Amino acid sequence: MLLRMSGISKSFPGVRALDDVSFEVSEASIHAFLGENGAGKSTLLKILSGAQAPNAGTIEFAGQHVSFASPQAAQAAGIATIYQEFTLAPDMTVAENIFIGREPGSRLFVNFGKLEEQTRALCARVGLDRSPRALVRDLSVAEQQMVEIARALSMKSRLIIMDEPTSALSRAEVDKLFSIIRGLKREGVSIIFVTHRLEEVFELCDSYTVLRDGRNAGQGKVSETSVDAIIRLMVGRDVGLLERRAQSFSTPEVAMEVRGLSRMRKSTDASAIELHDVSFRLHKGEILGIAGLVGAGRTEMARAIFGADGFDKGQVIVDGRPVVIASPRDAIAEGIGLVPEDRKQQALFLSLAIRTNMSIASLDQISSASGFLSSAKESALVEQYRKLLNIRMASGDQLVGNLSGGNQQKVVLARWLALRPRVLIVDEPTRGIDVGAKVEVHNLLIEMARSGIAIIVISSELPEVLSLADRILTMREGHVTGEVTRAEATPEKLMTLMTIGSQRAA
Amino acid sequence: MGPGMTDSVAAKAERDFDAFSFLARFAPLIFLLLLMAVFAVLEPRFLSSVNLFNVMRQVSITGLLAIGMTFVILTAGIDLSVGSLLAFAGLVAAAVAKGGMQDRFTVGDDTIGYGWPLAALAAIAVGLLGGLLQGVAITRLKVPAFVVTLGGMSVFRGAALLFAAGGPISGFEPSFTWWGQGKIFAVPVPVIIFLVAAVIAHIVLSYTRYGRRVYAVGGNPEAARLAGLNVSAIIASVYIIMGFFSGLGAFVLAARLNSAEAVAGTGYELTVIASVVIGGTSLFGGTGSIFGTVVGSLLIGVLLNGLVLMNVNSYIQQIIIGIIIVLAVAFDTFAKSRRRKN
Questions:
Q1: Less Cβ crowding at N or C end of chain B, within 10 Å?
Q2: B286 and A351 in contact by Cβ < 8 A?
Q3: Average pLDDT for residues B87-98, to the nearest whole number?
Q4: A-B contacts (CB, under 8 Å)
Q5: According to the model, what pLDDT value does residue A502 have?
Q6: Closest chain B C-alpha to A19 CA, distance in angstroms
Q7: Residue B227 belongs to what domain range?
Q8: What global pTM score does this model have?
Q9: Nearest CB to A347: which of B13, B210, B223?
Q10: Which pLDDT score is estimated for B165?
Q11: A332, A338, A394 ranked by CB distance to B12: nearest
């Protein structure tokens, strides 16, 4: 074994991210590392690459016990990581990027001849047909990835971690990447390959490890398993604590329709996620679940509908009228609200009082025509939603930053409820919220649906989608890959649609 | 939830009230009172009513600018052009008052010129226009405020020098100079203008829709956009407000000095930004108040006045102001990181 991690545990405040996990990679092999969002993959890889320290457990690498204090230490030992977001400097050359901080030459001067010579050799190994003097800015995404791989090789790495290396590549580029990876394997380098595309596992990898909820769910040889078996390992047998709700409030009346929503990647933003012809109808009183893995385009779709980001093609129809939405202001005027996934960065004003956080979108309701706020009306609004949503707070003047995650999310929900929306899109409504508050937020969403609001729930947690939604759309790589009613939905079926696409799920 | 819930909430609120955040909030005021006490002991002349009004009159011009700057800094912006814009607006006002440039040194001839109302309007119009141009450049051209107003600082100073053609414009009618030199019940008129402006600005920031939105844009521009606010319009507006106060300050300064000149207001940006920051308004945006800015302005005024009374070299005063501004921001950064940890 080249790598043997055993008994690894890691806790963050309030969360047990890894619980007694073991992970092994043999010499000169390609190892698939799989699991749902939040299963603990990133945490384990951060520990392996020296970015975080485990609370317990041992790491054995190339026959020696190791513990990496920093990413530099892991690199020096021969473990390199290629992140999804590249870490290249766009205005420097290929050669400079590969040898950044380790340039050949004396203490003061770089030996540029040697630099280019070594770069050329590395480029040949990874099949990059570019001058060492080319600027990284001018390279395609696939070529930039080759530079990253060349950098890993230049550090004499014996183990290279690749975090979703294929997510931004075309089919032809993926084929080329795979042949490079197979070449590395022949040279004796091992690869940890993280992907959401299960078919790639069977095309490329020798062995696999599946994590679920921070624990080992299974591992073995790829040749001895099947896609269905791996999906079962990823979702587990139990759907979770949450029960499916009994009633549906969905009506035949269409509140919003999205037709052919598309967005292409711009050359300036190579890792942007595309949307391809996304279409669906949303009914009054319905909760529509959107399931998909990270990078499936769920958030991008929500932001495009809400006017937070632009889109190239497509139409949004609200109450039977096509509407033009160029900004969040337009969306709000049409009765569409968005509770974004990143509460602290995108929704809350942490340095401001709860009252401002609640009333900021509906100030017109609580002020006179001349623009003066009515403190009485604002307090009434705060009090109304404090009671309705059972927000635990001392007073409206308290800073919102001092509330718990669950209560902060309720404040954001109150902001939108005060606007009486027709359509409310909630992106990861219970991320970072404890279990009790989670149930409360779910009940609130159900109550909103009962009152006739059409709701879209985006969630990475399958149990959440299964327990809340009347109907579920699955997305993968910017496409809608399936539509499943509540009665037909099972975790396995959704996971298949999320990872493989529609051809197999039918 | 049972009654026990409200108890624990109350307990939590009490814990939120810790000594540090109390001190952080009132630190500028406490520091001002301490400083006054120290000067009162060291130099008895300091506490005379003549001297105190003197301090306030000296503070009133930069104080007016600091009120506008509070709006700007609340949105996490900055305006370095205030001193230059003030000089240019002052010259335009003076030229209007004198009916042109040819009679610039004629004193006390009220048959020429257009009187103070038109002069004041001219100064304010120049200020508004300057602010509008910079606000549009910041929001439409997406150039950082620091760069736009650094450019504005040079542009307006150049315009002032060009306009003045090398000399001051002085000698206004008494009705003009009253705005800078007059008194109402022993209180200097500039002080009254400053305090009235502060009260109005406080009302706007605390009790209007607009004020709320300024805080929101400064607190988290992305969240403000996603809550449906017109972030660009709000950002542009604070530079226009800043321009208004630059114009008003220009008029009052010209009235006080009975003269307008192209080098007026040199270095004001430092004093003005220092007043706002020392008053507790965060350069990161979203937190601060007009009350704090008034205290900050007085603090700088008292400090300078006290140093003058104690015959401290004026170059040393500059050094002290510079150090204080860095310390005030360091304190703000520290308070912010402390909040985040909590």
A1: N
A2: yes
A3: 90
A4: 92
A5: 57
A6: 27
A7: 29-35+42-333
A8: 0.79
A9: B223
A10: 81
A11: A394
Mean pLDDT of chain B: 86
Given an 8 Å threshold on Cβ–Cβ distance, is A352 in contact with B209? no
Residue B315 lies in a domain: yes
Residue B57 lies in a domain: yes
User: How far apart, in whole angstroms, are the C-alpha atoms of residue B216 and residue B225?
Assistant: 10
A328, A352, A364 ranked by CB distance to B225: nearest: A328
Residue A240: predicted pLDDT: 44
* Nearest alpha-carbon partner for A191 in A8, A21, A4, A33: A33
Q: How far apart are the first and last CA of chain A?
A: 40
Q: Which amino acid is residue B4, in one-letter code?
A: G
Q: Which residues pair with A280 in a beta bridge?
A: A258
For A352, the closest of B5, B226, B286 (CB atoms) is B286
| ipTM confidence | 0.81
Residues on chain A touching B342 (C-beta within 8 angstroms):
402
pLDDT tier at A490 (50, 70, 90 boundaries)? Answer: confident
- Name the pairing type of β-strands A471-476 and A479-485: antiparallel
| pLDDT one-digit tens code per residue, A227-267 | 888 888 887 754 444 556 667 888 899 999 999 999 887 76
**Rounded mean pLDDT, B67-78:** 96
Boundaries of CATH 3.40.50.300 in chain A?
3-235, 254-335+421-505
pLDDT of amino acid B105: 55
According to DSSP, the residues that pair with A31 across neighbouring strands are: A192, A207
Report the chain B residue with the minimal C-alpha distance to residue A387: B1
Which architecture, in CATH terms, is A3-235? Answer: 3-Layer(aba) Sandwich (3.40)
Put simply, the answer to whether B5 touches A371 (Cβ < 8 Å) is no
Chain B residues within 8 angstroms (CB to CB) of chain A: 1, 5, 9-10, 12-13, 16, 207-210, 212-213, 215-216, 219-220, 222-230, 282, 286-287, 339, 342
User: How many CB atoms neighbour CB A180 within 10 A?
Assistant: 19
Q: Which residue on chain A is closest to B10 by alpha carbon?
A: A394
- Look at chain B and report how many structural domains it folds into: 1
pLDDT at residue B9 above 60? no
pLDDT in tens, B183-230: 898 889 999 999 999 999 999 999 999 999 999 999 999 999 999 999
Q: What is the mean pLDDT of chain A?
A: 88
Quick one: CA dihedral B16, B21, B26, B31, positive or negative? positive
* CB–CB contact B212 A373 (8 Å): yes
Mean pLDDT for A142-153 is 90
Residues in chain A: 506
Contact A373 B225 (CB under 8 A): no
Q: Which 8-state DSSP code applies to residue A10?
A: E
Alpha helices in B258-313 (DSSP H): 268-278, 290-309
Average pLDDT over residues B34-48: 86
Q: Are A442 and A409 in contact (CB under 8 A)?
A: no
- CATH 3.40.50.300 for domain A254-335+421-505, yes or no, is yes
| pLDDT of residue B103 exceeding 70 | no
Cα separation, A194 vs A203, whole angstroms:
14
Domain membership of residue B263 (yes or no) is yes
Q: Does residue B115 belong to any structural domain of this protein?
A: yes
